[in-house]
Write a structure and sequence with these properties.
- The strands form three sheets. An eight-stranded parallel β-barrel has the order 7-8-9-10-11-12-13-14, surrounded by seven helices. A four-stranded antiparallel β-sheet has the order 2-3-1-4. The protein has a two-stranded antiparallel ribbon with strand order 5-6.
- α3 packs across α4, α3 runs parallel beside α11 and α6 packs across α7.
- It folds into two domains: about 60 residues, 2-Layer Sandwich (Alpha-Beta Plaits); about 250 residues, Aldolase class I (TIM Barrel), CATH 3.20.20.
- It is built from eleven helices and 14 strands.
- The protein starts with a strand and ends in a 5-residue tail after the last helix.
- It is about 35% helix and about 20% strand.
- It is elongated.
- By secondary structure, the protein is α/β, with parallel strands linked by helices.
Length: about 325
Protein backbone atom coordinates (compact mmCIF):
# COMPACT_ATOMS: atom_id res chain seq x y z
CA UNK A 1 0.00 0.00 0.00
CA UNK A 2 1.07 3.59 -0.67
CA UNK A 3 -0.14 6.35 1.62
CA UNK A 4 0.00 9.75 -0.07
CA UNK A 5 0.26 12.69 2.31
CA UNK A 6 -1.33 16.07 1.74
CA UNK A 7 0.93 18.97 0.74
CA UNK A 8 2.08 20.85 3.81
CA UNK A 9 1.66 17.92 6.18
CA UNK A 10 3.74 18.62 9.28
CA UNK A 11 6.52 16.39 10.54
CA UNK A 12 4.45 15.72 13.68
CA UNK A 13 1.49 14.51 11.60
CA UNK A 14 3.81 12.35 9.47
CA UNK A 15 5.29 10.73 12.56
CA UNK A 16 1.80 10.04 13.89
CA UNK A 17 0.93 8.22 10.65
CA UNK A 18 4.18 6.24 10.81
CA UNK A 19 3.37 5.29 14.40
CA UNK A 20 -0.07 4.03 13.39
CA UNK A 21 1.52 1.80 10.74
CA UNK A 22 4.11 0.44 13.15
CA UNK A 23 1.48 -0.20 15.82
CA UNK A 24 -0.26 -2.48 13.31
CA UNK A 25 2.94 -4.52 13.01
CA UNK A 26 3.77 -3.22 9.53
CA UNK A 27 6.91 -1.60 8.11
CA UNK A 28 6.68 2.01 6.84
CA UNK A 29 9.13 3.40 4.27
CA UNK A 30 8.94 7.19 3.92
CA UNK A 31 9.82 8.87 0.63
CA UNK A 32 9.95 12.66 0.70
CA UNK A 33 9.61 13.94 -2.87
CA UNK A 34 9.69 17.41 -4.39
CA UNK A 35 5.92 17.75 -4.48
CA UNK A 36 4.56 14.91 -2.34
CA UNK A 37 5.56 12.70 0.56
CA UNK A 38 4.47 9.08 0.30
CA UNK A 39 4.76 6.18 2.70
CA UNK A 40 5.04 2.62 1.43
CA UNK A 41 3.53 0.08 3.81
CA UNK A 42 5.11 -3.38 3.75
CA UNK A 43 3.39 -6.33 5.40
CA UNK A 44 -0.12 -7.70 5.76
CA UNK A 45 -2.10 -4.63 4.75
CA UNK A 46 -5.34 -6.21 6.01
CA UNK A 47 -4.26 -5.07 9.46
CA UNK A 48 -4.86 -1.50 8.33
CA UNK A 49 -8.25 -0.18 7.38
CA UNK A 50 -8.04 2.09 4.33
CA UNK A 51 -11.01 4.10 5.56
CA UNK A 52 -9.32 4.62 8.96
CA UNK A 53 -6.10 5.82 7.31
CA UNK A 54 -7.97 8.33 5.17
CA UNK A 55 -9.41 9.89 8.33
CA UNK A 56 -5.99 10.59 9.86
CA UNK A 57 -4.95 14.26 9.53
CA UNK A 58 -2.37 14.67 6.78
CA UNK A 59 -3.42 11.64 4.71
CA UNK A 60 -4.70 12.46 1.24
CA UNK A 61 -5.31 8.90 0.02
CA UNK A 62 -4.22 5.28 0.40
CA UNK A 63 -3.59 3.20 -2.72
CA UNK A 64 -2.71 -0.47 -3.19
CA UNK A 65 0.58 -1.40 -4.91
CA UNK A 66 -0.36 -4.08 -7.39
CA UNK A 67 3.12 -5.30 -8.32
CA UNK A 68 4.79 -7.93 -6.09
CA UNK A 69 7.83 -5.66 -5.74
CA UNK A 70 6.81 -2.56 -3.82
CA UNK A 71 9.69 -0.22 -3.05
CA UNK A 72 11.43 -0.59 -6.42
CA UNK A 73 8.26 0.04 -8.43
CA UNK A 74 7.20 3.17 -10.30
CA UNK A 75 3.95 2.95 -8.35
CA UNK A 76 5.89 3.84 -5.21
CA UNK A 77 8.21 6.43 -6.76
CA UNK A 78 7.49 8.15 -10.06
CA UNK A 79 10.73 10.09 -10.52
CA UNK A 80 14.05 8.41 -11.29
CA UNK A 81 16.36 7.64 -8.38
CA UNK A 82 19.73 9.40 -8.59
CA UNK A 83 22.58 7.90 -6.59
CA UNK A 84 25.48 10.15 -5.59
CA UNK A 85 28.82 8.35 -5.30
CA UNK A 86 31.48 10.82 -4.22
CA UNK A 87 30.00 13.44 -6.53
CA UNK A 88 29.36 11.02 -9.43
CA UNK A 89 25.62 11.00 -10.06
CA UNK A 90 24.18 7.75 -11.37
CA UNK A 91 20.66 7.89 -12.78
CA UNK A 92 20.59 11.49 -14.00
CA UNK A 93 21.00 12.81 -17.52
CA UNK A 94 24.68 11.90 -17.71
CA UNK A 95 25.75 8.36 -18.61
CA UNK A 96 28.34 7.02 -16.17
CA UNK A 97 31.31 5.00 -17.40
CA UNK A 98 32.69 2.29 -15.09
CA UNK A 99 35.90 0.72 -16.34
CA UNK A 100 38.84 -1.38 -15.21
CA UNK A 101 40.16 -4.93 -15.17
CA UNK A 102 38.03 -7.98 -14.45
CA UNK A 103 40.30 -8.89 -11.55
CA UNK A 104 42.85 -6.94 -9.56
CA UNK A 105 46.28 -8.42 -10.28
CA UNK A 106 49.08 -6.08 -9.19
CA UNK A 107 49.19 -2.58 -7.76
CA UNK A 108 51.24 -1.16 -10.64
CA UNK A 109 49.00 -2.68 -13.30
CA UNK A 110 45.82 -1.47 -11.60
CA UNK A 111 47.19 2.03 -11.03
CA UNK A 112 48.19 2.31 -14.68
CA UNK A 113 44.79 1.15 -15.93
CA UNK A 114 42.99 3.45 -13.49
CA UNK A 115 44.90 6.48 -14.77
CA UNK A 116 44.21 5.58 -18.38
CA UNK A 117 40.48 4.94 -18.02
CA UNK A 118 40.07 8.17 -16.08
CA UNK A 119 41.82 10.10 -18.84
CA UNK A 120 39.52 8.39 -21.36
CA UNK A 121 36.35 9.46 -19.57
CA UNK A 122 35.58 6.85 -16.91
CA UNK A 123 34.31 8.19 -13.59
CA UNK A 124 34.26 4.91 -11.60
CA UNK A 125 36.96 2.24 -11.33
CA UNK A 126 35.91 -1.41 -11.45
CA UNK A 127 38.05 -4.33 -10.32
CA UNK A 128 37.44 -7.68 -8.68
CA UNK A 129 39.22 -8.63 -5.45
CA UNK A 130 36.97 -11.68 -5.03
CA UNK A 131 36.13 -13.55 -8.23
CA UNK A 132 33.33 -16.13 -8.53
CA UNK A 133 34.67 -18.63 -11.07
CA UNK A 134 32.98 -21.63 -12.66
CA UNK A 135 36.04 -23.80 -12.01
CA UNK A 136 37.43 -24.14 -8.47
CA UNK A 137 40.91 -24.25 -10.01
CA UNK A 138 40.65 -20.84 -11.68
CA UNK A 139 42.05 -17.63 -10.17
CA UNK A 140 39.72 -16.55 -7.35
CA UNK A 141 41.09 -13.06 -6.67
CA UNK A 142 43.55 -11.51 -4.25
CA UNK A 143 41.01 -10.87 -1.50
CA UNK A 144 41.85 -8.15 0.99
CA UNK A 145 45.14 -7.37 -0.72
CA UNK A 146 43.19 -6.64 -3.91
CA UNK A 147 40.87 -4.32 -1.98
CA UNK A 148 43.90 -2.44 -0.67
CA UNK A 149 45.19 -2.07 -4.24
CA UNK A 150 41.81 -0.61 -5.26
CA UNK A 151 41.87 1.84 -2.35
CA UNK A 152 45.36 2.95 -3.37
CA UNK A 153 44.23 3.44 -6.99
CA UNK A 154 41.34 5.58 -5.75
CA UNK A 155 43.72 7.69 -3.68
CA UNK A 156 45.90 8.16 -6.76
CA UNK A 157 43.15 8.98 -9.29
CA UNK A 158 40.16 10.08 -7.23
CA UNK A 159 37.95 7.49 -8.96
CA UNK A 160 35.32 5.87 -6.72
CA UNK A 161 35.64 2.06 -6.62
CA UNK A 162 33.12 -0.69 -7.35
CA UNK A 163 33.97 -4.28 -6.44
CA UNK A 164 32.10 -7.53 -5.95
CA UNK A 165 31.15 -9.18 -2.69
CA UNK A 166 30.52 -12.93 -2.49
CA UNK A 167 30.20 -13.65 1.22
CA UNK A 168 28.27 -11.66 3.86
CA UNK A 169 31.18 -12.24 6.24
CA UNK A 170 33.36 -10.05 4.00
CA UNK A 171 31.01 -7.05 4.26
CA UNK A 172 33.11 -5.04 6.78
CA UNK A 173 36.17 -5.46 4.56
CA UNK A 174 34.27 -4.40 1.42
CA UNK A 175 32.66 -1.43 3.16
CA UNK A 176 36.06 -0.22 4.30
CA UNK A 177 37.60 -0.11 0.83
CA UNK A 178 34.81 0.17 -1.77
CA UNK A 179 32.36 2.93 -2.70
CA UNK A 180 29.85 0.65 -4.46
CA UNK A 181 29.06 -2.95 -3.50
CA UNK A 182 28.57 -5.20 -6.50
CA UNK A 183 26.42 -8.31 -6.17
CA UNK A 184 27.17 -10.56 -9.11
CA UNK A 185 24.85 -12.56 -11.34
CA UNK A 186 25.54 -15.83 -9.52
CA UNK A 187 24.50 -14.23 -6.21
CA UNK A 188 21.40 -12.40 -7.45
CA UNK A 189 19.22 -14.69 -5.34
CA UNK A 190 21.60 -15.09 -2.42
CA UNK A 191 18.97 -13.63 -0.12
CA UNK A 192 21.16 -13.50 2.96
CA UNK A 193 23.74 -11.48 1.02
CA UNK A 194 21.03 -9.20 -0.37
CA UNK A 195 19.63 -8.53 3.09
CA UNK A 196 23.10 -7.79 4.46
CA UNK A 197 23.75 -5.32 1.64
CA UNK A 198 20.41 -3.71 2.44
CA UNK A 199 21.60 -2.93 5.97
CA UNK A 200 24.57 -0.89 4.72
CA UNK A 201 24.69 2.82 3.99
CA UNK A 202 26.52 2.15 0.73
CA UNK A 203 25.35 2.05 -2.92
CA UNK A 204 24.74 -1.43 -4.34
CA UNK A 205 24.85 -2.60 -7.95
CA UNK A 206 22.82 -5.77 -8.44
CA UNK A 207 23.53 -7.85 -11.54
CA UNK A 208 20.82 -9.86 -13.25
CA UNK A 209 21.12 -13.62 -12.82
CA UNK A 210 22.02 -15.78 -15.79
CA UNK A 211 18.50 -17.21 -16.07
CA UNK A 212 16.50 -14.63 -14.12
CA UNK A 213 13.28 -13.07 -15.32
CA UNK A 214 12.69 -9.34 -14.95
CA UNK A 215 10.25 -10.05 -12.11
CA UNK A 216 12.82 -12.17 -10.23
CA UNK A 217 15.44 -9.47 -10.82
CA UNK A 218 13.25 -6.75 -9.32
CA UNK A 219 12.22 -8.92 -6.38
CA UNK A 220 15.90 -9.44 -5.57
CA UNK A 221 16.37 -5.67 -5.56
CA UNK A 222 13.34 -5.45 -3.28
CA UNK A 223 15.22 -7.50 -0.67
CA UNK A 224 17.87 -4.77 -0.50
CA UNK A 225 15.44 -1.86 -0.34
CA UNK A 226 13.24 -3.59 2.22
CA UNK A 227 16.17 -3.51 4.65
CA UNK A 228 16.43 0.27 4.32
CA UNK A 229 19.06 0.80 1.60
CA UNK A 230 17.51 2.70 -1.33
CA UNK A 231 20.84 3.31 -3.10
CA UNK A 232 20.43 0.46 -5.57
CA UNK A 233 21.22 0.24 -9.29
CA UNK A 234 20.42 -2.67 -11.58
CA UNK A 235 22.85 -4.18 -14.09
CA UNK A 236 21.88 -6.10 -17.23
CA UNK A 237 24.84 -8.34 -18.10
CA UNK A 238 23.37 -10.86 -20.48
CA UNK A 239 21.27 -13.96 -19.88
CA UNK A 240 21.72 -17.60 -20.80
CA UNK A 241 19.93 -18.70 -23.96
CA UNK A 242 20.44 -21.43 -26.57
CA UNK A 243 22.79 -19.14 -28.55
CA UNK A 244 26.52 -19.97 -28.41
CA UNK A 245 27.92 -17.28 -30.74
CA UNK A 246 28.36 -15.00 -27.72
CA UNK A 247 29.12 -15.73 -24.09
CA UNK A 248 25.58 -14.70 -23.10
CA UNK A 249 22.69 -12.94 -24.83
CA UNK A 250 22.54 -9.24 -24.00
CA UNK A 251 18.88 -8.45 -23.35
CA UNK A 252 18.72 -4.86 -24.56
CA UNK A 253 14.93 -4.91 -24.31
CA UNK A 254 15.37 -5.19 -20.54
CA UNK A 255 16.47 -1.54 -20.44
CA UNK A 256 13.17 0.07 -21.56
CA UNK A 257 11.19 -2.62 -19.73
CA UNK A 258 12.97 -1.87 -16.47
CA UNK A 259 12.70 1.88 -17.06
CA UNK A 260 8.94 1.46 -17.20
CA UNK A 261 8.69 -0.75 -14.11
CA UNK A 262 11.25 0.78 -11.73
CA UNK A 263 12.78 4.08 -10.71
CA UNK A 264 16.23 2.53 -10.11
CA UNK A 265 19.18 3.37 -12.40
CA UNK A 266 20.04 0.81 -15.11
CA UNK A 267 23.65 -0.15 -15.88
CA UNK A 268 24.69 -2.40 -18.78
CA UNK A 269 27.76 -4.65 -18.81
CA UNK A 270 28.40 -5.53 -22.48
CA UNK A 271 31.75 -7.14 -21.67
CA UNK A 272 30.27 -10.07 -19.75
CA UNK A 273 27.30 -10.23 -22.09
CA UNK A 274 29.17 -10.89 -25.34
CA UNK A 275 32.51 -12.17 -24.05
CA UNK A 276 34.35 -10.91 -27.14
CA UNK A 277 36.22 -7.61 -27.32
CA UNK A 278 35.27 -6.97 -30.95
CA UNK A 279 31.54 -7.01 -30.11
CA UNK A 280 31.65 -4.68 -27.11
CA UNK A 281 31.55 -1.31 -28.98
CA UNK A 282 28.36 -2.16 -30.90
CA UNK A 283 26.56 -3.40 -27.79
CA UNK A 284 27.74 -0.44 -25.71
CA UNK A 285 26.37 2.00 -28.30
CA UNK A 286 23.09 0.09 -28.49
CA UNK A 287 22.76 0.17 -24.69
CA UNK A 288 23.22 3.95 -24.62
CA UNK A 289 20.64 4.36 -27.40
CA UNK A 290 18.21 2.14 -25.46
CA UNK A 291 18.41 4.37 -22.38
CA UNK A 292 21.06 2.89 -20.07
CA UNK A 293 22.24 5.15 -17.24
CA UNK A 294 25.74 3.72 -17.26
CA UNK A 295 28.11 1.17 -18.76
CA UNK A 296 30.57 -1.20 -17.14
CA UNK A 297 33.48 -2.03 -19.47
CA UNK A 298 36.44 -4.34 -18.84
CA UNK A 299 39.76 -2.68 -19.68
CA UNK A 300 43.21 -4.27 -19.40
CA UNK A 301 46.58 -3.03 -20.66
CA UNK A 302 47.68 -6.55 -21.59
CA UNK A 303 44.62 -8.79 -22.16
CA UNK A 304 46.73 -11.71 -23.41
CA UNK A 305 48.26 -12.05 -19.94
CA UNK A 306 45.16 -11.19 -17.89
CA UNK A 307 44.44 -13.56 -15.01
CA UNK A 308 40.84 -13.94 -16.24
CA UNK A 309 38.48 -12.82 -19.02
CA UNK A 310 41.20 -11.48 -21.31
CA UNK A 311 38.99 -12.30 -24.32
CA UNK A 312 36.55 -9.58 -23.32
CA UNK A 313 38.94 -6.87 -22.13
CA UNK A 314 39.49 -3.74 -24.19
CA UNK A 315 42.87 -2.06 -24.51
CA UNK A 316 42.95 1.42 -22.93
CA UNK A 317 43.33 3.23 -26.27
CA UNK A 318 40.38 1.29 -27.73
CA UNK A 319 38.31 2.21 -24.68
CA UNK A 320 39.22 5.85 -25.25
CA UNK A 321 38.03 5.64 -28.86
CA UNK A 322 34.81 3.95 -27.72
CA UNK A 323 34.03 6.77 -25.30
CA UNK A 324 34.39 9.29 -28.15
CA UNK A 325 31.87 7.31 -30.22
CA UNK A 326 29.53 6.89 -27.26
CA UNK A 327 29.41 10.63 -26.74
CA UNK A 328 27.95 11.00 -30.23
CA UNK A 329 25.33 8.34 -29.55
CA UNK A 330 24.47 9.92 -26.20
CA UNK A 331 24.04 13.35 -27.81
CA UNK A 332 21.63 11.85 -30.34
CA UNK A 333 19.30 10.73 -27.51
CA UNK A 334 19.68 13.97 -25.51
CA UNK A 335 22.14 12.49 -23.00
CA UNK A 336 25.80 13.14 -22.23
CA UNK A 337 28.90 11.27 -21.04
Amino acid sequence: MIIVLKPGTSEEERERIVGTIEDAGLSPHVLIGKERTVIAVIGDERKLQQQTLSAIPGVEKALPILSPYKLVSREFKKEDTIIDVDGVKIGGGQIVMMAGPCSVETQDLLSGIASEVKAAGASILRGGAFKPRTSPYSFQGLGEEGLEFLAAAKKQTGLPVITEIMDPRDMPMIIKHADIIQIGARNMQNFRLLSEAGKQNKPVMLKRGLSATIKEFLLSAEYILSEGNDQVMLCERGIRTFETATRNTLDLSAIPVLKKLTHLPIIVDPSHAVGKTSLIPAMAKAAVAAGADGLMIEVHSNPMEAFCDGDQAMLPHDFKSLVVDLKRVAAAVDRSI
